[in-house]
Write a structure and sequence with these properties.
The protein is mainly alpha-helical. It has helices at 6-12, 14-24, 34-63, 66-72, 84-95, 106-122, 124-134, 136-160, 162-177, 179-190, 196-224, 231-251, 264-273, 282-312, 318-341, 348-362, 372-376, 381-406, 412-436, 453-460. Helix 8 (136-160) packs antiparallel against helix 12 (231-251).
Length: 462
């Protein structure tokens, strides 16, 4: 749709002037570039980190002696609210479940799964601050080494006692929690504004691919793996991450200026483009569990292309683009959760479809509020992401006991309450960002004496 006067507006817009200035600096192809290589190596790093993270979700099914636990804490069903066919399905599933050797009850299992988030919570802000002060390469390597060592020690720790296992899971969370703030800090030095959505989303898609691969891989290792099955999950994911870490330390640098293999043209392009901002059955369950993450990964590959196109073609400002993507991801996923509340176990294709669609839509947020820290304050992107992700990760240890409390009898009406609460939280967060969010470079991120024409032009385009 043509808007009167729009052509004149765009011809005089500082946004166009800034874009032309970048173009005049000989914009370098993204394909086969050092910044693309950085995105790829980050992709595989997050893939490995998420393999470490999700492995316990599957391993705990294989490591627990369900027969012993069930004898002391049997699950009761209310036949007035649970379909008899569902009970038969559940009983049949439990009948074929193979037992492990560890005897942790449901409460202890909840603590094991939730322990990760205690470490994940406390490392968010320190990770971002340390990366901004000392450089992201070494700090990311240190935190990843911590989580990797804890992962490799998990099988032994689980056999030694609950306390040691919980401590190791906290360490895994500690190492993993700093990942996104640190990578945000690195991208603030590497990602040109007009490529930011693509590069950040590509690299962060590794986390989703780790979830996609982690579920079926862990399920298969539980059943067919060495060292008794479930321990092989932690050995393989730990060794894979250690192998990747060697490449990270050799080939990655904190910024283009310190990169040993980048060509001069690409280095100057990145530096010049940032001048205005940086003034300084376990197996079967695993396959089904992977479906939503496959959709999420696909959307994370498509939505950044759309977002960057909207911005670079001047259809929408950065602020409006971030809000649009956040609305699609948050409100769209919320609608799917409401739909899930009204399905039952016999309509599993609909259930899987709604869950997959909801998680898929949520991928749009990676081109929305999740990249917004770099838009508004690239100098402090790591710290800001650490703060917001720390607050968001509170749900990681609040939600499991809350859901357990609300669904004591596993009734459908109880699960409807959980889904409605989750949907409401998504809508609230999305609407809040749509109302108050901004893609404008903030004045407090720059030094007064260094304010110049480039900075003013860049802020105008937002």
């Amino acid at each position: 749709m043509d808007v009167p006067g729009m052509e004149f507006f765009f011809s005089k817009s500082p946004f166009i002037a800034y874009s032309k200035k970048i173009a005049a600096g000989k914009r370098q192809p993204l394909l086969f570039s050092c910044r693309m290589f950085l995105a790829v190596i980050m992709f595989f790093g997050l893939l490995n980190i998420y393999l470490q993270r999700v492995g316990m979700s599957v391993a705990i099914v294989c490591m627990i002696n369900h027969t012993a636990v069930a004898s002391s804490n049997s699950l009761q069903f209310d036949n007035r609210t649970v379909d008899p066919n569902c009970i038969k399905s559940i009983n049949r599933t439990e009948y074929i479940m193979e037992d492990g050797k560890l005897e942790y009850d449901k409460v202890q299992q909840g603590h094991i799964l939730g322990a990760f988030f205690y470490g994940y919570l406390i490392s968010q802000i320190p990770g971002g601050i340390l990366a901004e002060r000392f450089g992201g390469k070494k700090i990311f390597g240190i935190f990843t080494a911590i989580s990797t060592a804890a992962t490799l020690l998990t099988p032994s720790g689980a056999k030694m006692g609950l306390g040691i296992l919980l401590f190791l899971r906290v360490l895994v969370g500690l190492g993993s929690g700093a990942a996104f703030p640190i990578l945000h800090s690195i991208w603030s030095q590497w990602a040109p504004p007009l490529e930011r959505s693509k590069l950040v989303s590509l690299s962060y898609a590794g986390a989703m691919m780790g979830s996609v691969a982690g579920m079926p891989l862990s399920g298969a290792l539980c059943e067919f793996g060495f060292a008794g099955g479930w321990p092989s999950i932690f050995y393989i994911t730990g060794l894979s991450t250690a192998f990747w870490l060697v490449f990270w330390l050799i080939f990655v640098s904190d910024n283009p200026s310190s990169h040993s293999m980048i060509n001069e043209k690409e280095k100057l392009y990145i530096i010049n483009s940032l001048q205005g901002q940086l003034l300084k059955n376990p197996k079967n369950n695993g396959y089904f569990s992977a479906l939503p993450w496959i959709g999420l990964w696909a959307n994370m590959s498509i939505s950044p292309l759309i977002a960057d196109k909207l911005i670079s073609s001047h259809y929408l400002s950065i602020t409006k683009t971030r809000k649009l993507m956040t609305a699609i991801g948050g409100i769209g996923a919320s609608a799917c959760l409401v739909g899930l509340a009204f399905t039952d176990c016999r309509a599993y294709p609909i259930t899987i479809g709604l869950l997959t669609l909801g998680v898929t839509l949520s991928g749009s947020q990676y081109s929305g509020f999740l990249v917004n820290h770099i838009d508004i304050a690239p100098k402090y992107a790591g710290t800001l992401f650490g703060i917001s992700n720390m607050l968001g990760s509170v749900a990681g240890f609040v939600a499991p006991p809350l859901v357990g409390y609300l669904t004591k009898n596993q009734r459908k009406d109880q699960w409807m309450v959980v889904l409605f609460i989750s949907s409401g939280v998504l809508v609230f967060g999305s609407v809040f960002f749509i109302i108050f969010g901004s893609g404008r470079l903030q004045n407090w991120t720059t030094d007064d004496e260094q304010e110049n024409e480039d900075g003013a032009e860049l802020k105008s385009m937002l």
